[in-house]
Amino acid sequence: QVQLVESGGGLVQAGGSLRLSCAASGDTFSSYSVGWFRQALGKEREFVAAIRWSGGGTTYADSVKGRFTISRDNAKITVYLQMNSLTPDDTAVYYCAAKRSYYALQGGYDYWGQGTQVTVSS
What we know:
Blueprint: E1 3-7, E2 10-13, E3 18-25, E4 33-39, E5 46-52, E6 58-60, E7 68-73, E8 78-83, E9 92-99, E10 111-112, E11 116-121
Parallel strand pairs: 2-11
Antiparallel strand pairs: 1-3, 3-8, 4-5, 4-9, 5-6, 7-8, 9-10, 9-11
């Protein structure tokens, strides 16, 4: 059974940085894509970034392009989200998700982590 565990959230001032981690287990992930999503209080969940495990191709939401970077560590079976130049608008619960597909990376995920809170103060 695929399990995803996020970590690395916290409180940071505007302009600061955080790195989120998503530790994956329960399968071989070479044929998976892993995405990061976020949900702010009172808002719908939105796509942030995704990566194809094999080959490392990435895609980002326009709102985070140039500020966030998604990457993966094959040995640790972990996906990271490096977040720089954070603003209060980035405040949300961040979730990682996985699916056995390389297509349509902005949705259709089958497995979800429990989420980690990111709060950016002004």
